[in-house]
Amino acid sequence: MKLPYLLLDVFTRERFKGNPLAVVPKADGLSDAQMQTIAKEFNLSETVFLFKPAAERNTASLRIFTPYQELPFAGHPTIGSAVVLGLQHKLNAVRMEEKIGLVTALVDRLDKSVGEARFALPKLSSRVGEIDDMLGIAQVLGINVEDIGCDLYKPGVFSAGVPFHLVPVRNAEVLARLSVNHALKPKIFTHDRHAVYIFTLTPEEPDNDIAARMFGMGLGEDPGTGAAAAALIGLLAENQPFATGQSDFVLRQGHEMGRPCRITLQLRKENDALVHGAIGGQAIIVGEGTLDLGE
């Protein structure tokens, strides 16, 4: 049994930047065990498998695997899959069935191998927990207690399908010098998968508004984490200075790893409640090949 696959770099239009992704576009017939094995073989932060949709009006069904587990939702596989489907089928909008629900993405085809996609969150971000141990946070991240916090932002646990511990830090210099104690991390960041997203505002940087880094989910550091950016929308919404209105942000991630990512965020509030969240980014196809399953 042989299957084609594509390799992409997501949240960038530059080859060998951004967050790598493997896409298996004809995965019908694969078992759960086979998909997990293939994801482990690629050993990327995520591998996405595309299937025929359950509903005829939809474009594809998606399943997303890290090397260790399946995820109900992830941002960079969603962006990458939308770009692949848009480029292959010449579509400006794609409807993707994910474990978390139906995701509709708008796609701009920039050239034969590059596209840009943006989608509304299928599940709005909400606060699912608190983080009160400031000393513990500082010890895990290798910073001082007074480095925690930025503007009005304070740590919290948010989820738009996958929970993340969100930790604001004082500035980009603090963000750059993090030294994570991975052994201590699960004792302080106790929610599912122990993932922590550290961020700061970047008013001194003309190309973006926010900088972030993500550690966890068995991946070490991840260069570009759409699900974490989606979770961050909930905390951003809580701290916007309006009850009704819209805000747009550009977030950078992965710069400290030499894999710069650019993620766009959008939120809208009505009567002080988050009613819309969206993320977007570009992706480029950098390679293709064939999986030989030996069957």
Q: Number of DSSP helices? A: 6
- Using the CA coordinates, give the radius of gyration: 19 Å
Major sheet strand order: 1-2-3-4-6-7-8-17
- State the CATH architecture of the largest domain: Roll
Residue share in helix? 10-25%
CATH class value of the largest domain: Alpha Beta
Give the oligomer, counting copies of the same chain as homo and different chains as hetero: single chain
Total separate domains: 2
**Beta-strand residue percentage:** 35-45%
- Determine the N-to-C terminus distance: 5 Å
User: Total strand count, please?
Assistant: 17
Helix vs. strand class: alpha+beta
The average pLDDT is 97
Q: What series of H and E elements makes up the topology? A: EEHEEEHEEEEHEEHHEEEHEEE
Main pleated sheet: 8 strands, mixed, barrel
Low-confidence stretches: none
CATH level-4 homologous superfamily of the largest domain: Diaminopimelate Epimerase, Chain A, domain 1
Task: Write down the overall geometry.
Answer: globular
Q: And the CATH topology of the largest domain?
A: Diaminopimelate Epimerase, Chain A, domain 1
